[in-house]
Amino acid sequence: MMAADKAEQAVNVEQWQAINERDGHFDGQFYYADRNTQLYCKPSCPTQIPKFNHVCIFSSVEAAEAHGYSPCRKCRPNGKAVTDLEWAGQAERFIHSHYPNPLSVNRIAEACHGPSSELQQIFIRIYGVSLLDYLDRVRMDQARYLLIHSRLFIKQIAELVGMPAAADFSRKFKEKEGVAPTEYRKRARKLDTDQHS
Ligand SMILES: [Zn+2]
């Protein structure tokens, strides 16, 4: 196997057209991956077509997977069904890489190439929390980290964790942590000072 066969390639005009026409004649000739969703598909996949600048091409399933892409549940590019566990994992990965953006259940399901009610159900079964509760958890983990390790204002932290309305962020933080963000930071600093004095 030549090294080039394993490489990530830029999409050419013919491939881009095949993807847009969902042309099944090209199935097996190449696979396309979406850097945004981290999934890869067959050219004929009926799901939403990624943005042009997010697309890259692989000549084999192995190459796409070697680059960290997961198979799309809808078009099953590697010929195997995506298990519930794998699918929930795709949603988890999407949440971790996109929590700074506005996200909804529909948006997450769209990125995971499947129906939102089904994804929600499976996610809850596997992770024990809903997609949005999980998203909150990831955002609050990051917020706690930034409160302790940065000097950023609360408003800036709220934006960085995907909750641009600072009041909503503070309310949510208090709901989850039992204290307001400023108080949390104050206590963490005091603890730190006490330990070092
Ligand atoms: Zn697909």
Automatic annotation (TrEMBL):
Residues 89-187 form the HTH araC/xylS-type domain. PROSITE patterns: HTH_ARAC_FAMILY_1, HTH_ARAC_FAMILY_2. It comes from the Bacteria. Coiled coil: none annotated. GO terms for molecular function: DNA-binding transcription factor activity; methyltransferase activity; sequence-specific DNA binding; zinc ion binding. Keywords: Activator, DNA damage, DNA repair, DNA-binding, Metal-binding, Methyltransferase, Transcription, Transcription regulation, Transferase, Zinc. GO terms for biological process: DNA repair; methylation. Its cofactor is Zn(2+). This is AraC family transcriptional regulator, regulatory protein of adaptative response / methylphosphotriester-DNA alkyltransferase methyltransferase.
